[in-house]
Amino acid sequence: MLLDYVKLKDIKPALYGYIRESKSMLALSAIADEKVVHDVRVLMKKSRASMRLIRTQMDVESYSREYLTFREVGRKMRSWRETSVHRKILKEFKKKYPDIISRLEDNEKIGILMKKPESHQDTPTEIKEYLPQISDLLNKSGYRIRFQSMNNLDPKLLLKELEKTYIQVTDCYITARNNPKTTNLHVFRKRAKDFLYQLYFFRPLKPPVIKALEKKLDTLTQNLGRCNDLAVLVNELGYKYSVTDNSPAMDELIIVIRGEQDKYLSKVWPIAYKVFCPGQNLMNVLGFKLLVI
């Protein structure tokens, strides 16, 4: 029985490490710049995915408290991250499609989005207000995690939770493939990231196979993320197609954005089909013909 002699990666040190690393990055940065915001949000996603693995082996109150803490930290930093992503995309488009962007130079929304803060003083007020709150949330959570008992986690229950995640992602994949609207793609990406971050703890089962699977999932989620960033930008621009209301330049920009989304999705579906195709199960995907637990 494989799980009886293969030791999975310990979750508690990893979880505490995510919190410690987040605190360190925020403490070393004079202000939460774009990279810090991105990296801390990723660490919070990893923390939530880890919590989902162990939820059946924790009391409900402790699980809810920590999970909601990690979600709250991510949410408080979301708006600053989105603003920086909008600016980056538009700058890339300015280089790639200078004629289109030059014809939109009088567009107020695009002008605001492309303006980079000149100093820390230009950082959104909400970020300045939230940083002490975020620091406090992480400090308290880190303290609680240190004294949370996670020494006797049942690997069979962890595997069952991983299987649940896999089944959820498969369902999200089928939904998104049949109806690839923004919300479905976004949910598919979130659940796929959960699966990716949870797989880390199962590497010892079959390291080469699981690392290769992690690489595929990373590529898949990165491309879904870029597609979603473009969808959020379109929404931020307030674009609605109308024969009379939009300038030709704006219509052309949106068509270019849709084309970029198509390119990203064309890289998603082949990987998704191989990993989450209906009829497969987790053991096959992990490279086992049979895993007796």
Short description:
This protein is an all-alpha fold. It contains 12 helices and no strands. It has helices at residues 2-5, 11-28, 34-54, 60-96, 98-102, 108-114, 125-146, 155-178, 182-199, 207-236, 248-276, 282-285.
Task: Fill in the keyword field for this structure.
293 residues; mainly alpha
Secondary-structure topology with pairs:
Layout: H1 2-5, H2 11-28, H3 34-54, H4 60-96, H5 98-102, H6 108-114, H7 125-146, H8 155-178, H9 182-199, H10 207-236, H11 248-276, H12 282-285
Please give a structural write-up.
The protein is mostly helical and 293 residues long. 75% of the residues lie in helices and 0% in strands. The protein has twelve helices and no strands. α4 crosses α10 (207-236) and α8 (155-178) runs antiparallel to α9 (182-199). The chain is globular and about 65 Å long.
